[in-house]
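Morning run. Coffee first, then this:
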Amino acid sequence: MPRVKGGIVTHRRHKKVLKLTKGHKATRHSLFRRAHESMMHALFYAYRHRRERKGDMRRLWIIRINAAARAGGLSYSQFMDGLKKADVEINRKALAEMAVKDPSSFSKLLTLASAKLES
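And here it is:
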């Protein structure tokens, strides 16, 4: 059986890795072995941080809702409890958007939540 050299396949694979690591520092974008390590770490971080971003966004929404609720005289937990008692099912993303872009409708929700807390 004749010997087969895999030069073309290897070269293409190396080029693909080096293209992915463009912009990395020092030899992490020019030497294949270092670039491969750099690429593997970068891809892992990207994967992990895509999942972390969900929690980051939820924390941001809660901070915004809390700030708007406190401006209306309620804490975040009291506001959410009042909404639950009033059977208002609206997610935190929509509430945060409403708090920033439509304060008048958010204040209506605040009065509804505070009324349910008192009764």
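The chain has five helices and no strands. Good start to the day.
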